[in-house]
Each structure stands twice: as C-alpha cells, then as structure tokens.
Amino acid sequence: STYTEIFFLFQQHQQTLLNQLREVTGTTDVQLLQQALQVSNGDLAEAVAYLTEKNAKVPQQDETTYYQTSQVASDRYISVGSQADTNVIDLTGDDKDDLQRAIALSLEESSRAFRETGITDEEQAISRFLEASIAENKASLKRTHTEVWSDSPNPHDRKRIDNCPVGLKNVGNTCWFSAVIQSLFNLLEFQRLVLHYSPPARVQELPRNQKEHRNLPFMQELRNLFSLMVGSKRKYVDPSRAVEILKDAFKSSESQQQDVSEFTHKLLDWLEDAFQMKAEEDREGEKPKNPMVELFYGRFLAVGVLEGKKFENTETFGQYPLQVNGFKDLHECLEAAMVEGEIESLHSAENSARSGQEHWFTELPPVLTFELSRFEFNQALGRPEKIHNKLEFPYMLYMDRYMDRNREVTRIKREEIRRLKEHLTVLQQRLERYLSYGSGPKRFPLADVLQYAMEFASSKPVCTSPVEDIDSSAPPGCAASQQLPPPRQQDSVAPLESMSPATGAQQQRLAIHKPFTQSRLPPDLPMHPAPRHITEEELRVLEGCLHRWRSEVENDTRDLQGSISRIHRTIELMYSDKSMMQVPYRLHAVLVHEGQANAGHYWAYIYDPHQRCWMKYNDISVTKSSWEELVRDSFGGYRNASAYCLMYINDKKPFLIEEEFDKETGQILSGLDKLPPDLKHYVKEDNELFDKEMQEWDALQARKAQQEKLALAAAAAAAAASSPLTMQVFLQHDPEYMEQPSPTNDSKHMQEDTERAISKAVAEQEERSPEGLLNAAIKLEYARLLRFAQEDTPLDNDYRIQHIIVYFIQNQAPKKILERTLLTQFADRNLAFDERCKSIMSVARAKLDLIKPEEVNMDEYEIWHQDYRNFRETTILMTIGLELFQKTNYVESLMYLIYAYQYNKELLTKGLYRGHDEDLLGHYRRECLLKLNEQAAAMFEAGEEPEVTTGLGIMNELVVPCIPLLLVQEVERDLLAVEDMRNRWCSYLGQEMEANLQEKLTDFLPKLLDCSTEIKSFHDPPKIPSYSALELFERFSRIMSAMGRVPSEGR
C-alpha cells in the first residue's frame, strides 16, 4: 500500500542517517545513535555534536565529594544536585593564569562563615562582575562617538507610549541587570514589597556595619528605580545609581560572565537582609517573618546512604541548580538532580556499602527558580565553554512527583518507568533487527529485502549473459585487448551498429549514451536484472513464501512499533492522573543568554497575564513576543542563545501577579496611584524634568523653523529685486527637477519629451489653437507615460527614475496632482524655441495661474513631490553603494547602502512602488558588513599592531554600530549574518595570543555581543551628488544589470 511504501521510505532514510552517524563518530551502539538522532530532531551535525560531547564527558569525582550535600550545611545557598561539582579542579596555584583562577573561584562552593565585614567569597566574585560593568560604562565616556550608546536628541522619541512597560538603559555591559530586575519587577507581589519598603526607624542609632551600609542605600535606589518603571513618562530609565551602589559594595578588578547567576542569588540575599532588619523591628519578641524568604526560599529533605550509613537532612534552597548536558527536557534534569548515585540500598533492609541519596521537596516557594547550568570548564582546552544543547521546558510544570508527601507513590512510578524503559530497550533492539537487516556494513529493512527478492524472481527471464550482447557488438576493427570490461548494470553501453556514410551524419546527431555521466539507460536494456531460468512451479512456490514472509515481517514490525508507541505514551501519562497534578507552577519568566562562556548578551521573556501574551525585555526595547519566539531563543540548539534561568510561580497563588485595588473605590491602582507619597513625589519631579526637556526641544525646533522661514523670505526678496520672472517661479513652488534655469540636465530631457508631444499633437489635430494643441499634447504625453507605468519591466529598466509622472501613476497619486504636474512640464519657459511652443507654454502658465487653492491642495502636492525627491535620493545612494561594492570598496560602500536601505524602508511604508526591492538592498547591506567583518578579522589574525588597530577600528566604527539595524527587524538572514560575525570573533577565545591582543579582544567582544536594538550614532549620511534623470537612469541600469539579482544564500 501507499502508506507502507511511505513508511519504508522513511525507515530507509532513518537507516541512512544512522549509517552516516556511525561512520562519522565511530559509535556502534545503535540505541545511542537513535537517541542522538532523536535529541537532534534528525539534524546530522547536531547528532554528531551530541555524541562527541557524550563521549568526551569528564569522569565523575570520588564519592566523598560527590555526596558532600549530605552533610549539614550552614549556608543557605548550597549546591543542590552535586553533579555541578564533578568538574571542579584546583586552579588557584601560582602557575595558573588569572582567567583559570577566576573560573575556579566561580565553580567551587563557598561554605565559609561571614567575615567581620559581612562579605563572603561569593560576594567578592560578584564584585568582579559588577565592577567590570561600571568600568565599561565609565570607559565609554572616553570612546569615539561611533562607540557610545547615545539617546536620541529628540525627547519625543524617548517618550513612553500609553502604559507600555518601561525599559532599562544598558549603561555599559549591564544587560544582565536589566533581565534580572525586569523579571522580579513583573512579580507584582515583589514589586509591592519593594515599593512599600521603609528602612528601620532606629537605623540612625544602630552601628552601621558593612551590610547595612550596603543594603539600605541599595534598597532605596531599587525603590526609586521601580517607581520610575511604574510611573515614568520615559520609554526607558537609567539604572546607573543602583548599579553604582552594587559596585561600591565590593572591591575587585576581575569579572566572569557566568557570575550572573550568582548575582541573582546574592541580590535576593541582600534584599533578605534588608527586610530582616525591618521585620525584627516590627515584631519584637516574636520570630520575625521575612517576606523575601517566604517568597523565594523552599526546603527539601535529603535522604540516603553514605558508606552504608543512612542519613536524613532538611535543607533550604533558593535557586535550584540543574545540569543541562545529557538531558532533553526539564523533567529529566529534575529527575537526575533528585536521585543521585545507587539508590537500591535506600529501599532495602540490608546494610549495604553502596552510597546514594534522594531529594524530596517538603516546602516549595511561591516563586520557584531553576538555574540551568550551561557553562562548564573544558579541562582539555583550559577554558570555560557554554553548553548549547537543546533543553525543552513546559509552560505548566507539575511538581507533585518531587514532593515528599508523594514519596512512595513516586518511587512506585519510577520503578514502573524503569521497568517500562527496560522493556522498551528490548523492543527497540528487536525492531532494529527488522529495520537494519544484513551481516555486512550496509543494512536494509528486511521487508524491503524480501520485496526486492520478489521483484527479482518475478522479472521476465533472460536467456543471455548481460556481457555477451556487448562483446558481440564490438565495432569492427576493435582489437580484442581493447574490449570493454564487464560493465555494471547501470553503466551498460548500448549496442553499436555499423554506420554507412549515408547515415553517419544522422548518427552524429543522435544522443550518445555516456556511462558515468548519464543516468539514462539504453532502450533495449532490461530495467532490472532477472533470473536466467525459473519454472512456473518454482516461481509460484517462491512468490508464495516471499509474500508470506514479507507479510509476517510487516506485521511483526507494526506490532513492535505499536508496542513502542504505547510504552512511550504510558511513560508520558505516568504522572497525568489528578492526584499528581495538584502542585501546578506556571512559567513566569525566562532569562536568556546569547554568546559564549566569556561574553554575551542577556534578555528576558516575561509573561503578561493581563494581556495574555509574552513580552520580550531587551534593555530599552520592550516588545510583544510569542511562545514560538521564546522557544526558538530559549530551548537552545538553534543559535548561541539559550535559557540559563527559569522562573516559575505557583499557579494556585494568584496574589503573586494580582494588581492592587483601591480600598475605597474598588478600582485597580495604576501609574502614580500605586506609589507611596515619597516615591510619587520622586517620579513627579522626574516627569516634570522630562516635560521641560520636551518643551525646550519644541521651542528650539520652532526657532529653527522660524529662522528657515526668514531665510526663505530673504531669498525670495533678493530674487524679486533681481528678476520678477524668477520671483514668479519661486512663488509657484514648482519642484527643481520640473523647471530649471537653462535647458540642461533634467529640464533638457523633459523638454525634448514635451516638444515631441507638441509636434505629434500638431500632426494629429485639426484644431490649431494653442489651447487645443496643449490639451492634445498633454493627453499624448500622459498616454505615453501611462504605457511606461503599466509595463512589467526588469529592475534595470525602471521608468520611475526617468519621469515623475510614472512614479505618480504607479503609486496612485490623485488626479489633480497629476494634472498640475503635467501642466508644469508644459509651462517650462525653455520651450520657447518657436512661436508655436511659446504660445502653448503661455497657455499652460495661464492655466496654472487660474488653478484655485481649493482645487489643488498645495501641501499634498508638495508632499508628493518631496516623496519623489526622496525616491531619487534613495536611488542615488543605492546606485553609488552598489558601484562601490562592485569595486570591492566596502568601507565607502557601507554608508551608502545603510542609508539607502533605511530611506527605502521609509518609502515602502507608504506603498509597494514607493521604493526599490528591499530584499536586494538588504542582501548587499548584509554582504558588505560580512565582507568588512572578514577583512577586520584577517587584520586581527595578522597580529601586527597597525593592522590590528585598523581592523578593530573597522569593527568599532562601521560594523558594530550597524548591528542593531540588522537585529531590529529580526529578519532570519540578518540574524544569521550577525551570528556568523560574532562566531568568527568568539572563535579567538581560548586561542594563544599576545597579552595586548587578548586585552583588545576582551575589550571589544562585549560591544560586538551586545544584542540591544538601540541604534548607536554613526557617520552622517553621505553627501548626495546631483544627477540628471537620464544620467541616473543609465547608471542605475548598468549596475542593476550586473548586480540586480540576489543570489541564493546559505549560512
């Protein structure tokens, strides 16, 4: 059947992939190969990477370290699921460099007590990260204008629209701060706690220790920041003061990208300390309740056996760390983290020497945060690496199976799943024998083998050898030693007949079958090999057996596949009964990292329950998103972007995201009404400053406009004094390309068209009055231009460049605009080369004078002509940019192509025919950036100081400022181009190079990897030269003939 054929084709394709994977990796374990294909969704490259990583996994350390979490810990922030510690090595010796020392510090668990200052080793590690961010911000003040993040000078561009969420400005490598703070701010219960926090009343009397000196000012700045995010009129606000306080709390000089998770971890610790001081004051004599602890911290029970001795400890956790490597989804990560080592002895009465432990949650926090470990240290390369593996996670996560109260039920189900997986493995192995049949290196589905045998047996018998007909038909005069070797079936040659001179020419015209170059078979060759001799009885018996065997094999295969599917389904539904769906957690936020281990960019996806959609918080940019976009950027395995932190909230505790209501009116509080009096005053002051800034800007623009009007009036007065005729032309506001002072350039070209129309009208019309001839000439000219506008012309023959009327017709300009524009063409004073044209010109000018203001909207008329001027400018920029690109002058070409693309995009917002092909411009803009990136990288690789400086200058001044332009529209090919450019520079990480080159690379990479779509200031638009319509048309045609087709692009 058709279904069966499709199924076997699919199985054959799968087998081909398995064989290729086996050859590339050398792995012979079929189950492992199938797992790799399943994890990679059939992508061979990802499957190879998966197997390579799996084979290169570092051995686990000894049990003493592995089960260190079983010991009673005094630090809340223990390393849960100690797989995270398996790769820890000592790199603190003098013979190791600073990078390795920092990595060792960030990986090892700090369980030492607070020093007198209250600063732990973790806090010192965080300080390195924070100080680097502040240093980056301060250093930006010393950079050239091409490298500095700049606000738009127009405050109206920075004005918040309605109640859109407020973004956070990246003040120098602080995208990590924005992602974390936005995720917490959008927890409305957390937001309320921060906004309504007040420091202890006796704080001035207390001895200000290091903690208080750090926490209380930070809390105040966080309140200020949150209040601006609630009620500001700005599209985005500046978090510098909060970041400065974090920096001032620590003193260090190093940083590591992976310390961001520790930053979140310690940020909650600082908030907890601040709330603890307040709680102790409010509830003297009672055990104080800390809202931060109640919101973010939970408890789990660690039960197990260590060297034959059973233990049971209750431990507290904040962020719960999970390993990513080797797992396909969040539940697999959790299962691995909850069960460690050999756990058989936990359930038996025998006193075994085996060791193992289980974790069971006794109390889950309302906000459950998972830290995904996507960074690991590569011992072979001596540097940290990011894990890009795909990891799926659900929107709704049910935690019942991990709760202590369900311990026995879960153990039973885990045992059932283990038994089912064992059975599944046996069935998959049996199925594999059917789908990969044979004893040689190449294997095929057994059903196909039987089908092929049946087809062979059923073929019409042949009586001769497949070699005999070729040998016997060798051409005359051919020596025996020159005879062909026995050919393969596909490559057999058709018999050659002796040719007479009369038929020689005809034979030469016939297609000659060429073995190895043509797949067509000679017409007289059998389609398949066939048996020499087979009787009907033999065929009947053989066909009966083959049919029966094939049917049995197909039935067995279907049964195995059905059983495998049922087992998969049973495992999937193992925890789907209602009793195991009582602890629902809904995904609130996903924090994403893009880049490598040492550098990258952070942003967050946060669910808005009121709009019922996902929002993307990317520094100053806050946009609506979708689950599909979140999956693409967060699951991993697609680009260098993946989630590193998941924030779930208890779906049965709606207070976490509920808005606050006014107690008197019952209305939802919004904007400034949500703020306490001190913060309301603070925000009002800031909004007044912003209003004042907008008013000053408007006043400045009004003064500029008034000055321009005065300048125009002065020019008009001077023109009137020198020439009344010039004044008349000025008052008519006719476009410069419609009327010129002398018959040159555009005017000459248009003049010739006009005179041609007049001559044709004179020849065709009986009425010879000037007005009749004018009407006839205008109709003829319009008909000619209409034909041009309606033609389906190639890109290199764009009539819009030659005549404005064609542009107007294609873009459906109003009739009155067309009529006035044509009248202006015939009113050109340069037409007065004879009396007849002069009289027609005079009539046209008189008609222009008679047009009343209400008949033609002059503002609309000017807008249409300004649009055409913009179209011409865009065409000039595009033409020059492509000409320079063709000459490989990419540095000069870039700005022309950048501005041509931007101007063209603005034109296309008004209509399809307002501009040029956006894909074409986008392609060459992208290619120009890739070429410059390649040149700059080659200069950096050269290692010579002048070339390195030049290469980094190209990147900083040209490429990096343009990257936001490629990111803002999220066009797939633009995103891939940016990724390729970043990957090229990230590939230098870990390579041996001189110290000065390493320093330059470290300084440069954060700029390249910053994914903010805020546009940086770069070079002013190129000066646009003046071309006549004919000259521009010819140059545009030449360059479009050479480069007008966009080639197919790959990665």
From TrEMBL:
InterPro entries registered for this protein in UniProt: Papain-like_cys_pep_sf, Peptidase_C19, Peptidase_C19_UCH, UBA-like_sf, UBA_8, UIM_dom, USP, USP25/28_UIM
Keyword Ribonucleoprotein carried by entry: no
Root EC class: hydrolase
Record region (Disordered): 464-508
GO annotation terms (biological process): protein deubiquitination; proteolysis
Keywords, sorted A to Z: Coiled coil, Cytoplasm, Hydrolase, Isopeptide bond, Nucleus, Phosphoprotein, Protease, Repeat, Thiol protease, Ubl conjugation, Ubl conjugation pathway
SMART domains per the UniProt record, alphabetical: UIM
Domain USP residues, every copy: 166-651
GO terms, molecular function: cysteine-type deubiquitinase activity
Record note on quaternary structure: Homotetramer, inhibited form. Homodimer, active form. Interacts with ACTA1 (via its C-terminus); the interaction occurs for all isoforms but is strongest for isoform USP25m in muscle differentiating cells. Interacts (isoform USP25m only) with MYBPC1; the interaction prevents proteasomal degradation of MYBPC1. Interacts (isoform USP25m only) with FLNC (via filament repeats 17-18, 20-21 and 24). Interacts with GAPDH. Interacts with SUMO3; the interaction sumoylates efficiently USP25. Interacts with SUMO2; the interaction sumoylates efficiently USP25.
Similarity comment: Belongs to the peptidase C19 family.
Function, as annotated: The muscle-specific isoform (USP25m) may have a role in the regulation of muscular differentiation and function.
Record-given protein name: Ubiquitin carboxyl-terminal hydrolase 25
